Amino acid sequence: MLNITRRAVLGAPALALPSAIPLTLQAAQRKDPHPLYLARWREARDAINAPGLDEDSVEAEALYSEMCVAEQLISTRPAATARGLVAQLVFFRECFPAFVDFGYGPDCHPLTLVACAEMTARRLAEMR
């Protein structure tokens, strides 16, 4: 027969918590990749706009493709965390002038992005 004391039950979570914190942070980063999508989009955007890049080069096409993939990921997938929501809103703010001036391409969906951000905000508000 297993002998479990009250002290063992109450003390076990406290001993496990410090070692679980890094795993929790890593899981949160894996759970919501939106900050990574934003970083990838910014890198590709900045590289495309760098002086001296030939717009017709293979490199420019690859950068544009990478930027479009990041746009699609960040704008069509709901964020899972507050950091992901912030990344979506920053992306929208940085893209808004292009939405107004040029419209948007098939990989960037501003209304879907706003709907995803709203769903995340509502879910986070319910968690409190």
User: What's the overall geometry?
Assistant: elongated
Give the tally of structural domains. 1
Average pLDDT rating: 75
The fraction of residues assigned to DSSP E strands is under 5%
User: Could you spell the SSE succession in H and E letters?
Assistant: HHHHH
Number of strands: 0
Specify Rg, calculated over alpha carbons: 21 Å
Structural class: mainly alpha
Helical residue percent band:
over 70%
What ranges have pLDDT less than 50 throughout 5 or more consecutive residues? 12-18, 20-25
Quaternary state reads single chain
Q: What is the count of helical runs?
A: 5
For the report, how would you describe the main beta sheet?
A: none
Give a structural overview.
The protein has 128 residues and is mainly α. It has one domain. Helix content is 77%, strand content 0%. It contains five helices and no strands. It has helices spanning 6-31, 34-48, 58-76, 82-102, 110-127. Helix 2 runs antiparallel to helix 3 (58-76), helix 2 (34-48) packs parallel to helix 4 (82-102) and helix 4 (82-102) packs antiparallel against helix 5. The chain is elongated. It starts with 5 loop residues before the first helix and ends with a helix.
